[in-house]
What does this fold into?
Amino acid sequence: DIQMTQSPSSLSASVGDRVTITCRASQTINNYLNWYQQKPGKAPKLLIYAASSLQSGVPSRFSGSGSGTDFTLTISSLQPEDFAAYYCQQSYSSPFTFGPGTKVDIK
Amino acid sequence: QVQLQESGPGLVKPSETLSLTCAVSGYSISSGYYWGWIRQPPGKGLEWIASIYHSGRTYYNPSLKSRVTISVDTSKNQFSLELSSVTAADTAVYHCARPGGVKGAFDIWGQGTMVTVSS
It folds into this structure.
């Protein structure tokens, strides 16, 4: 199985801050890497697919980069509605595994 | 637009079988795509369980494969999950989702249904 790790596990930030979350795969997954946002009591929402492509309807302050094993999700200017948990997920090979998540809360 | 809605019992006894159904609206399952199940124990992360193609081809998470069956009913436009011999560790929110995005991203999700395993 491909193991996914994320760092940090949590962070505190202020509105307007630039936030970066890192995801690493235990083996190369090319760019089969997706990012999701999840708010309490809600289903995850796809933000970024194929490492760097913005899902339709997602604000442009979200961006993704990386390839191979190392990937990054960046929020350029944190907004109040962005406080949530973020998960990366590899769709390169079954079983399709998720990272443990990064919780972003208000500083 | 495509919508997914899970249904099933919210409480299952230990050693019994958990059965859930995901009703699909706004799209005909027989037209294509894989369809899947993902769960999230309270306060924990996401775990992919299984996926099925409209033709019936399946993928299972090896960690659960011996206890899981996923099936599709194109006549009812729905797909289902059965998880046998459940324990408290199977207590979770169960989401159905469609890995229909580019390169298999889960682009559409059901709201999820909480299943508690308890006597």
